[in-house]
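Q: Hi! First time asking for a complex rather than a single chain. Here are the components, and I think there are two in total. Is that enough to go on?
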Amino acid sequence: MTWEIERKKCLRCGGCVAVCPVDALVLTENGIEIDERRCISCGNCEKLCPVGSITVGGNR
Amino acid sequence: MKDVVVVGAGPAGCSVAKGLADEGYDVVVYEKRQEIGAPKRCGEGLSLSAMDELDLDIPDYCRMQSMNGALVFSPNGDYVRIHSNETVGWIIERKMFDKWMAERAANAGAKVRAKSDVVDLLPDNRGVVVEVEGETKRVESRMVIAADGVESLIARKGGVRGSSQMHLVDSGYQYEMVNLDLKDKHKLELYFGDDVAPRGYVWVFPKGENKANVGIGISGDADKNAKHYLDKFIDSNDRFERASVVEVNSGLIPVGGFLDDMTAENLLAVGDAANQVNPIHGGGIREGIKAGVIASDVVTEALEKGDTTSENLQKYNKRWWKERGKDLKNVESLREVLEDLDDEDLNYLSRKLDGDDLMKFTQGKRLSKLGRLLLKRPKMIKSARKLM
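A: Yes, that's all I need. Here is the structure of the assembled complex.
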C-alpha cells in the first residue's frame, strides 16, 4: 500500500478524513496524517480531495 | 468537573454553549484552530429568515453585502432571476461571525479556548483529552458535545458515525476574489451543468462592490477534482481575467445521509459533525445553530434530571427530525432527482420555473410542481414520481 500527500497542495480542510471508512486519517497541526496499518486503499480520500493532493497506490 | 465540554467553536458548538451557559451550566468550548472562524470552509451566505428564526442580531461588522435575490444559470446560459424588493439575506464574514458567536457564548458564561485540540474522549464520554498549546490535559465532564465539523474525530470516537458513501458528500473549493465585475452586486450567481459542476454548482457570492466568493461544489465521486472544474470555469470567463485571489478555501460538504441517532452515552453531535446541512445548497450555518438550540434544550433537561444516557438524549433526535430532519429529507430526495437530470432537462426546467419556485424547492416545498413538469420528460418519469 502506498499513500502519498503533496503537502504543498493540501489546504488542510479535512475532507479526506471525513470520507475515510476506517478512520485511518487524522487532521493534525502538521496536516493530514495516516495510520497505514488501518488504510484499506479504498481511494475515497484521493477522489474527494478538492485539490488533488492525495495519491493512493493500487487504486489507479 | 465541568458540566459540558463542547468540541469545536463553530456556529453549532457556540450555539449549544451559549444555550447551556445561559442556564448557568459550567461549559468549556475547545477549538483546535489558532483562530476561530479561519480558515473558512464556507460560501458565507446566510438568509434573513434564518437570522430571524434563530434570533441572531448579527452586528454590522460581520455583514459584508446584502442580497436581494439570485441569478440561476442553466447550462445553455439562460437564467432565472430571483428578485425581491427587500433584502433577503447577507454574505457574512465568517472570521468575524464565528468570533461573534464565540463571544456570545463567552459573555453568557462559557469558557472558550482557541488552539486547544481535543484528541480523545475519556471513558464513557465523561470528558476529553485536550492538548492546549502543547500541554496535554484530562478534562472531566458530565457530557461532551461533538461539534467538530466534517472530520468529526470526536463524534466518531464517541460512536456517532456518518456514512462515508461518496455520493453523500460534495467536494468543495473556493477562491475569494477581488477586482472582478459582478453581474449584480446584490444577487447570488449560481451556474449549473454537467460540464460546469457535476451534480453541484458554481457560485459567485458578492462580498462587496467588486469582490466575491467564487466557489464550486461537485459530487464526491466526480471524475476530476473540484479545483479542476472551478479553474476551468474561471479560465473560460473574461470577467475573471483582471481579478485577484486573496484567499483559497476547500472542504467537504455533506449533502444527505441524515442520521437516525446523533447521540451516544453522555454525548451528542451537532452541525457538520452530524451531517446537518441543506443537501441542495450545501448551507450549514442555519442548520448548525438550530440544532445547537435544540441540543441545549435537551441537554439542559438531561443535566437537571441527572440522566445523560443515550436513551434520555433520544429527545434530541426526535425534536431535530421533527423540526428539521423531515424537511431536509425532502430536500435530499430533490437532490437525488436533480442529479439524474441532464443539461437538456435543466434548460427545459429553467424555461418553466420562476424564482419563487426555486426558493421553495430549496426548502423542500412545492416539489409536486417539479414532479408534474418532469412527468413530461419521458426518461424522467420515474424520478418525477418520487416528488409527487
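A: The radius of gyration of chain B is 21 Å. Let me know if you'd like any chain examined more closely.
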